Automatic annotation (TrEMBL):
Protein name, UniProt field: Putative peroxiredoxin
Residue stretches in coiled coil: 416-476
Residues of the Thioredoxin domain: 627-777
Keyword Signal: yes
Keywords carried by this UniProt record: Coiled coil, Oxidoreductase, Peroxidase, Signal
EC number: 1.11.1.15
Top EC group: oxidoreductase
Any Pfam family the entry gives: AhpC-TSA
Lineage: Bacteria, Pseudomonadati, Planctomycetota, Planctomycetia, Planctomycetales
Origin superkingdom: Bacteria
Length: 785
């Protein structure tokens, strides 16, 4: 961590360096920028210069976010927002950024706005756009608005109204939400009163009315505002906002927008996803799956093409986990498993994707457990629970869930001994917590006599505080014990079922949390309560309309109850939902003999007919791949300090780490090498080589090696003085023309499996080593599958 003093000095230099801001954004050469920087920093210490390597010249706000140039990708929405610029390309990037913003693609929206600013540094609205893309990050939004305010003198009256409105919003007290939201509403209305033809003001107002909705918000008024937009531009991105408006109230009112939303902005994954909200709420799961699969494919294509790590897109994991839920509903079991596994396979990163965060790792694990349990794939669950997909974890709640599911799978396969082992592990955890409660109670009874009255009073207050903390700690432990008791009880219920004691199993399972209602009804039926069990199944179906799993279980149970007429009726209902069912999955495979007796072919599914109200849909394969896969690393040829040639080709078949090193003058880079060098042997033992690509010239490269310490630097250094390799790997700030820090994990096939690019180097060697082991071990499981 930087000391406060160092941070202050760095900030001071950033302020001094601001004079070069415009020239840098305009795209002047790095050497000229650094020359100006040197003049401005005269008198400052070398330490501060080193700390600035990789950091923006313009302050912390510009450190974060995308720092590589945008391109005009097309398909980002029909928006028209004229801004004060003489460069038509700037206008194109601004419109693209606004379309991306309307599609909640904030990461790419900021990139487009920053690119527009690099082409026209005087255009105030480009900074307004970057602030809009960061409204949920108040400090960054304020920083961008400061730049917009500085350029108000070159903005027109309409633009100034937009700038003033957003500036007041980001500066307002966030605790006074109603006051702040009302002020922003009125400011947008003022723009419309003066510029009634401004469609984008109407769209922003409609969006704000939805985001800030209260009990007094008129949905019909917002709907009327949106209709005004569609009368002028029927394919406007505001169809997105209309879906949000009616999503949780009257989803059927947004069906027309659901048919058009993705088509308005086909390059934006979230715009394909949003109609899935409406179709899901209306139990039209096949249509919901189509939309969410389209979203997944567009996201995958973008991330693989532009080498953006998956969870850097904030709503990516949300779409994919919902897609898996809906795949479960329509019986596309293999694809549900495939996508859940793919989510777990994605690279993890401490900032945005770990098991503790709501990213791909967390969601993928949840959904993989869900689909395996729902469709009785017990052997697969056991295999995956003993792999890196559903591996043991230090996250307590997740590990308890794993033990519960693993115990269920063992009992269902008749492996009572291993099932009991999971109960024993849960009980061991419980006993450890019981001992902890006793220890905490003993601590609470310890009292120390005060030497005098004042000390006694102070001690009494401290003791009271300590007692409250102790009680709180005990309550937390007791809550964990209660959860473990409940889990043990459930597993004992599954054990009873596995032993054929259905009555005891049912009594232990009923009323428990997270016991599948359909499974519970099956156990009840096996226990002899057939009428009540069938009622429970029908009740579950009524609350899970158009889901194939509960209906399939009802068909089978009615058949086994010798109610063949009722079974046939339920089977006909199931066939209406059957186009995409995987017939080889146990739940559906058991229906094969029943279908034969009813006179149907072995493939008893019906063909899918597209609904007539979903708009024109492209071929899904044209949008992108179903799974995310890593992208190829750029090839390179460089030389070391002795001018010996080194290249990416020498790593063919060899997984390796590539560190992008900002030269011997970069303090943080030196610290990174100091962190990685002692771990080289551990990486090598894991099958990983390591190399560092430096900005240094060959003479300076030798200086970096000599400066390491008395021992030889175990990481080879090569020179990329031209920065061509930095640029090829996108470890480069295109807006300020300076190299960035980068760390890459590349497999033996030359594919980038993990990366970190930013203004500071990645320092967590243990995380990267563990992540490399996790990623490469998945290939063994995939080969076995």
């Amino acid at each position: 961590m930087l000391s406060n003093a160092i941070r202050f000095l760095r900030s001071l230099v950033c302020l001094l360096a601001f004079g070069i801001f415009v020239s840098n954004l305009a795209g002047e050469e790095t050497t000229a920028a650094k020359s100006s920087q040197t003049e401005l920093q005269e008198g400052q210490s070398d330490e501060v210069d080193k700390i600035l390597e990789g950091h923006s010249f313009h302050g912390d706000v510009f450190n974060e976010g995308p720092r590589q140039q945008a391109y005009l990708m097309g398909g980002t929405g029909r928006v028209r927002f004229p801004v004060s610029t003489e460069n038509p390309v700037v206008q194109s990037f601004f419109d693209q950024g606004l379309g991306q913003l309307f599609g909640f693609w904030y990461f790419e929206a900021e990139r487009s706005f920053r690119h527009a600013a690099s082409l026209d540094p005087d255009c105030a609205m480009t900074y307004w756009g970057a602030a809009m893309a960061n409204r949920k990050n108040a400090e960054r939004a304020k920083g961008f608005m400061e730049e917009a305010i500085k350029r108000k003198g070159k903005a027109n009256e309409r633009e100034i109204m937009y700038i003033n409105a957003l500036d007041a919003y980001v500066k307002a007290d966030s605790k006074e939400k109603e006051k702040r939201n009302d002020a922003f509403t009125k400011a947008l209305e003022d723009i419309l009163l003066k510029h009634p033809e401004d469609l984008e003001a109407k769209a922003l107002l409609a969006l704000h009315l939805w985001e800030s909705k209260s009990s007094s918000t008129s949905y019909l008024a917002a709907e009327a505002l949106l209709q005004e937009i569609f009368e002028v531009e029927p394919m406007h991105s505001a169809h997105h906002f209309r879906i949000h408006l009616w999503d949780k109230r009257h989803p059927e009112r947004a069906l027309s927008s659901a048919a058009l939303c993705g088509q308005t902005s086909p390059s934006i994954a979230h715009m394909w996803h949003m109609p899935g909200h409406i179709y899901s709420k209306l139990h039209r799961y096949e249509d919901a799956v189509w939309q969410q699969e389209a979203s997944a494919r567009v996201d995958h294509a973008h991330m693989m093409r532009d080498r953006v790590m998956p969870d850097e897109i904030h709503n990516f994991a949300h779409n994919n986990e919902w897609l898996i839920r809906n795949l479960i509903h329509i019986g596309r079991v293999h694809d549900a498993i495939d996508l859940a596994r793919n989510m777990i396979e994605l690279p993890r990163h401490p900032r945005y994707n770990t098991l503790a965060k709501k990213g791909s790792t967390n969601f993928g694990r949840q959904r993989l457990f869900q689909v395996l349990r729902t469709y009785e794939l017990w052997d697969d669950m056991i295999t995956l629970a003993n792999s890196t997909y559903l591996e043991p974890t230090d996250k307590e709640d997740e590990q308890i869930k794993r033990l519960r599911y693993l115990g269920l799978a063992y009992f269902q396969t008749g492996d009572i001994q291993n099932g009991q082992a999971q109960i024993a592990e849960l009980d061991r955890r419980k006993q450890a917590l019981v001992s902890q409660v006793t220890t905490e109670a003993e601590k609470q009874t310890v009292q120390t006599e005060a030497a005098d009255e004042d000390k006694a009073k102070t001690q009494e207050a401290d003791q009271d505080k300590a007692e409250k903390l102790a009680v709180k700690a005990q309550d937390e432990i007791k809550a964990k014990i209660k959860k473990l008791d409940a889990t043990i009880k459930v597993l004992k219920g599954h054990e009873a079922v596995g032993n054929g004691d259905y009555r005891s199993g049912y009594e232990l399972l009923k009323g428990a949390d997270d016991v599948d209602a359909v499974y519970l009804a099956k156990v009840q039926w096996l226990a002899g309560d057939q009428e009540d069990a069938l009622k429970a199944m029908r009740k579950n179906i009524s609350s899970h309309k158009n889901e194939v799993y509960p209906l399939a279980i009802l068909v089978e149970t009615l058949w086994l109850s010798n109610r063949k007429k009722d079974s046939r009726t339920a089977f006909e209902e199931l066939r209406k939902l059957s186009p995409q069912i995987d017939l080889d999955v146990p739940v559906f495979a058991r229906l094969g003999p029943i279908a034969t007796e009813f006179g149907y072919d072995s493939d008893w599914r019906v063909k899918s007919l597209p609904a007539g109200d979903v708009g024109e849909r492209p071929d899904l394969n044209s949008l992108g791949p179903f799974r995310w896969r890593p992208s190829a690393a750029p090839s390179w040829v460089l030389s070391d300090s002795e001018r010996n040639p080194r290249s990416s080709a020498e790593f063919s078949g060899q997984p390796h780490i590539v560190i992008f090193y900002l030269g011997f003058g970069c303090l943080h880079c030196a610290e990174q090498l100091q962190a990685f060098a002692p771990k080289v042997k551990e990486f090598e033992d894991a099958g990983l080589s390591m190399i560092a690509i430096s900005t240094d010239s060959h003479p300076k490269l030798k200086q970096s090696i000599d400066n390491y310490n008395e021992e030889q630097l175990p990481i080879p250094l090569v020179s990329d003085e031209s920065l061509n390799v930095f640029k090829a790997f996108r470890v480069y700030d295109d807006f300020e023309n300076q190299p960035l820090h980068g760390t890459f994990l590349i497999d033996g096939n030359g594919m980038v499996r993990w990366q970190d690019i930013g203004y500071e180097p990645f320092m967590d060697t243990t995380f990267l080593l563990n992540e490399a082991n996790r990623l490469f071990s998945q290939e063994d499981v995939a080969d076995e599958s």
